[in-house]
Structures are given as structure tokens and as C-alpha cells.
Amino acid sequence: MHIGIAKCAERRVAMYSRNYGCRITDQIIMDGNKAVVMENQKLRLTFLADRGMDCVEMLYKPEDIDFMWRSPAGLHKRSEYLSNSGDSLGNYLDHNSGGWQEILPNGGGECSYKGACLGMHGEISSVPWDCRIIKDSEEEVVLKACITTLRSPFRLEKEISLKRDESAITIRESLTNLAKEPMELMWGHHPTVGKPFLDSSCRIDTNGTVGFSMDQRDFETQRLKPGTRFEWPAAGNGVDFSNVPGEDADTADMIYITGFPERAWYRVHNETKNISYGMSWDGKLFPYMWMWQVCGGSYGYPWYGRTYNLALEPWTSYPSSGLIKAIENGSALCLEAGEVRQTELCFWIKKEEI
């Protein structure tokens, strides 16, 4: 009897304070994970407060399209899946349900920095955040989320705002180095989009000007030769990275785009659906955009050829092989003792006029 009650409680869904205009609730449990839902007339967003504040749903209501990619791993309660290895890559990807992660202080592979082992995409994207609703009106809802890291001395605070009748969110962030010494880090946003939005009619536009690949091959099926630098978007040999390949193209690419002005942006337009999404951000703080695009061509663990996705990711640094590599190439962000950095990003969705 008590077990049944507990199970029901785990999947409870709370009523909003109203059923019109902007709405927000933090009283939702999804597969054992505390979640926060924000919505208005055009968007519904779901964030997993217990899982790095991942955005796992971004539903554009007028067209019934959820933009967030869903990983084959699916959404599950982390404590109910016991890993039989201590590998940080597996421990991260086994629980990556897709969507949008924020990553700090290490981007990519495991590394050791100042005596701390920093795991794959560690450490804020897989731990619970503190959340508080700070505005709840029919004109605007605002959620404040905070995290203090354990292995590294950082505190990150962000406010996510959604206004009435707008199909856009604004994120204002503040990052503090709590240490009494300088700290180097990588900081990035990892929004990954998939079906039903993504298809071969999608075109990418950006005010970044230069693309490049690393010297080491990322995928056997990548279209760009290792160590290539090119003027965006044409990389030679008939490859135009502004055109998204189809689901069965059997390709997988990891490239980096830079050369952004002070206000950086990108836009992805689906010509068949006539819908676009995009981001804008501080091009000085985040001077690199990682482009992770898999069109069925990533084999072996973890995707086994099963995924179709596009991630265009603002980052302070590169590459995706971890903080030590970013320190070596000079792209790692360094915060002095007690230093605070503030920034603002915007993510939007739009039905284009014909």
C-alpha cells in the first residue's frame, strides 16, 4: 500500500496557478527527476532540476514541434541504473537523455587539473541544482537556478525568463570563482536539436567566419579532413557545412567555428516547414561555436549508428578533448580569485513569413 502511494507521488503533476498567459511550476517529477515547466501561448519548456538543469523539452506549440533531440539512452532515474565501470565517458553518456546541457568547468574528455579529476563534460551537467521561482505573472515567468561545484571552486547562477506571447527565452548568468587563486575552465552551452524539426531541408546561417577541425580525427565518417581550416561555410571538395545532410547520410562531424563579432548568433531554417530557431550570445566571452552533427554515422558506443542530431554550441574554449588541451592552445578562460563574469544568451523559435 505504501509502495503504491510512493510511486504515485513520484509521478505527481501539480496544477498551475492559472491556465492562461505565462505559467510555471516546480512541482513535477519525471522518472524520478525533479523538473520545472515554464510555458506561455507559444512555448513549453521542461528543465530537469535534478539533472544539471538540462532542458529536455522545448515545444513550439503553434506547430506541435519539440526541438530538443532525444538520446537513445532515454530519461531514467540515475540511481536506478548501476554502472559496472568507473569510466567517466560512460557515466556521463549512460544518463544523457538529450536536450540542452550547460557544461563547466571541463568540456569533453576526462582530465586532471590542480589535483582534481574532471570527468567527461564535468561537473555541473549531471548534478542537482537549487531552483526558485522568482517571478510568476501572466506577463512573465522567471526561474532562478544555482549550482556550487564540488571538485572545483565555482558558483554559477542563472535566471531563465519567458514572456507572454514570445517564442524566445532569455538566460542571464553569473559565474564566480570562489577560490583564492586563479582558475582556468571551459564553459559552454550544448543545445542539441533533432527530429521532427531536423531534416535535409535545414540551412545554417551564422556570423562566424572561420571553421576548422582538429588534427586528430573525431569520426571515421567525418567529411572534413583533420587539421583543415576554411572560410565558413564552404570547406572544399563539395562540402558546404551550412547544408544539413539527411538522416541516412552516414556522416558524423565535429568542427569549430570562430571569427564572431561582439554579438554572435546563428540561425537554422527548415525550408520545408518554414520554421527557424537560433541563438545569440556574447561573442567575446564565448568566441567559439562547436558544431556536433551526427547523421547516422557515429558507430560503436554510445550511438551505434542510431542518432540524427545537430548541436550548435557557444563555448569559451576548444577542443572537445578537455580542459588541459584548452589550456595548451590558450583558449581556456581564466578567472582570477573572486572574479565574477556575467553574460546573457537568447534562444528563439520563429515561424517565418512567406
Automatic annotation (TrEMBL):
<dbReference type="GO" id="GO:0030246">
    <property type="term" value="F:carbohydrate binding"/>
</dbReference>
<dbReference type="Pfam" id="PF14486">
    <property type="entry name" value="DUF4432"/>
</dbReference>
<dbReference type="InterPro" id="IPR014718">
    <property type="entry name" value="GH-type_carb-bd"/>
</dbReference>
<dbReference type="GO" id="GO:0005975">
    <property type="term" value="P:carbohydrate metabolic process"/>
</dbReference>
<dbReference type="InterPro" id="IPR011013">
    <property type="entry name" value="Gal_mutarotase_sf_dom"/>
</dbReference>
<dbReference type="GO" id="GO:0003824">
    <property type="term" value="F:catalytic activity"/>
</dbReference>
<dbReference type="InterPro" id="IPR027839">
    <property type="entry name" value="DUF4432"/>
</dbReference>
<protein>
    <submittedName>
        <fullName>Aldose 1-epimerase</fullName>
    </submittedName>
</protein>
